[in-house]
Amino acid sequence: MLQFLSINEYMGIFLYYVYQVLRVYSYVIFIYILLSWTPLINSKFYYYLGRICNPYLNIFRGRFVFNNMDFGSLFAIILLQVLVYFIGSSLV
Fold first, then answer.
1. What is the DSSP string of 24-89?
2. What is the pLDDT of residues 6-23, one digit of tens each?
3. pLDDT band at 3 (very low <50, low <70, confident <90, very high)
4. Which of 17, 22, 24, 53 could form a cystine bridge with 32, CB 3.0-4.6 A?
5. How far apart are CA 2 and CA 53, in angstroms?
């Protein structure tokens, strides 16, 4: 017998998948930033990570510069983690 889900259950399922995608995306961004300090910046792997991460990170680049240090990537990760936290807390 078919059971139909209510709109709240569909919204919960949707938020769960958004939560998981954003959580993995934040890990990918963190790995991308860590690899930028290594000689691996010339590898294909770093190039493809850049293709994934740069659209989000470019929003914050150059906006939070203090004494020639760009804190845009740090702010981007913090904002993404706050979003993940709020979505995760709404699932409980």
1. HHHHHHHHHHHHTTSGGGGSHHHHHHHHHHHHHHTTTTTTSEETTEE-HHHHHHHHHHHHHHHHHH
2. 778 888 888 999 999 999
3. confident
4. 53
5. 41
Tokens of 44: 């294909």
The Cα 33–Cα 21 span in angstroms is: 18
Residue 82 has pLDDT above 90, yes or no: yes
Tell the residue number behind the tokens 């934040």, with chain if given: 26
Burial 44-62 (b: 16+ CB within 10 A, else e): eebeebeeebeebbeebee
pLDDT (0 to 100) of residue 40: 85
CA 78 to the chain's CA centroid: 9
